[in-house]
Amino acid sequence: MDPLTLLDIPSLLRAEDRDIQSTVERYLADRVRPHVAEWFEAGALPREIAGELGRLGVLGMHLTGYGCAGASATAYGLACLELEAVDSGIRSFVSVQGSLSMFSIWKYGSEEQKREWLPRLASGEAIGCFGLTEPDFGSNPSGMRTRAVRQGGDWVLNGTKMWITNGGWADVATVWANTDDGVRGFLVPRGTPGFSTRDIKGKLSMRASVTSELVLEDVRLPESARLPLATSLGAPLSCLNEARFGIVFGAVGAALDSFRVARDYAGTRVQFDKPIAAFQLTQRKLASMSLAVGNGMLLALHLAGLKERGVLRPEQISAGKLNNVESAIAVAREARTIFGANGISLEYSPLRHANNLESVLTYEGTSEIHALALGHALTGIPAYR
C-alpha cells in the first residue's frame, strides 16, 4: 500500500484522467526511469526526449487547438506528478515548454504567431523557453533591466536573462522587456543576430535539465515579433501561475517516489535479524511521510477542481506550491535516512529528488515570496518591500 491507495485517492479521479496518467507512467518507466540517474550524473538530457514527449501528447496538453490535446487540469497535473516522480528536470522541461513558452503564445500571441509556433512546440519539433528572470532581478521582475526600444517599425532589445530552463535548446524564446509603455513580451527565434545562449554548468540540482543564460545585444525584431495581447507585467506572471500549478502536482510525485523506494528498501534491508521496516522508528517515518504525500495530493486535486471551474486564484496556487514543495523536500530527506549511507548513492532516488527540490523551492516564486503572497491575502497588507 502507498499513501494514495491508503486514502483511496484513485477513486476520486475520472477514468480518462487515470488513463492519461497511466500512459505517461508507462512511457517513463520504459524510456526515462532506467537512465535518469546517468543523465543526472552526466549533467545532460537527451534532446530526442522532446520529440518523444511530443508524440506522447504532454507538451501543452492542457491547451486547446494548434495540435494541443485540450486535456483537463487534473490530467495535466497527474502527468506532472508522474514526470517529477522520475525527475524534476523532466517535469521542468515539460512545464517550461507547455505552461510558459506555449502558454505565453497561446494566451497573448497573434493568430499568425500561434499558427507558426504552437503545432511545432506541441510536437516537440521545436523547443521554447521563457526569459523573465535576470541576474539581479528574480523575485522582483518589475525591476528588470532588459529593455526594448522602438526604432522605426522595429524593436531593439538589450539585456540578459538568467537561469532559463531549455534556453540552450530553444528554437524560440519568449523574452520579457521593459519599454516606454511598460513590460512587453517578444518572440526571439534562435539565429536572430545579437541573440546568444550559454549553458550553466556546475549545478548541484536539476542536472538532468538544460539551464542557460540568454544574452540580447542590439537584437532587432519586427513589430510582428511582439506578443500583441501582453500589455503589462501581469502577462508573464499569469504564465508563471500556469507553471506553478504543475509544480503543485509534481512535488507530490517526487515525494511519492521517495516514499515508495524507501518503503521497499526498508522491507528488504535486514538489521538485528529482521527487516528495518519492522522497527517502530522506521514505521513512524513511513507513516509521517505517507500523511504528507496524501495531504499534498488532496490539496493538488482540490486546486485542480478550482482550476477546471475557472475560479482558481493566484494566492491559492501559492498555497499549493509552498505547502507541497516544502513537504516534498521534508519527505525526500526523511526517506534518505532510511537508506543510511546507501542513501547518498544515485542508485536510490530520494537524495536526487531532495537536491532537485531545492531548485523547485526557489524557482517560479521562492518559498518566501509565496509566504508573503499568502500573508497579503490573509491580512490585506503587502509586505514585499
Task: Explain what this protein looks like in three dimensions.
It is a single chain. By secondary structure, the chain is an alpha+beta fold. Helix 5 (73-86) runs antiparallel to helix 6, helix 8 (234-268) runs antiparallel to helix 11 (350-362) and helix 10 (314-338) runs antiparallel to helix 11 (350-362). The model has no long low-confidence stretch (mean pLDDT 97). Helices cover 52% and strands 16% of the residues. It is globular. The protein has 3 domains: 3-123, Acyl-CoA dehydrogenase/oxidase, N-terminal domain (Butyryl-Coa Dehydrogenase, subunit A, domain 1, Orthogonal Bundle), CATH 1.10.540; 128-225, Butyryl-CoA Dehydrogenase, subunit A, domain 2 (Beta Barrel), CATH 2.40.110; 234-379, Butyryl-CoA Dehydrogenase, subunit A, domain 3, CATH 1.20.140.
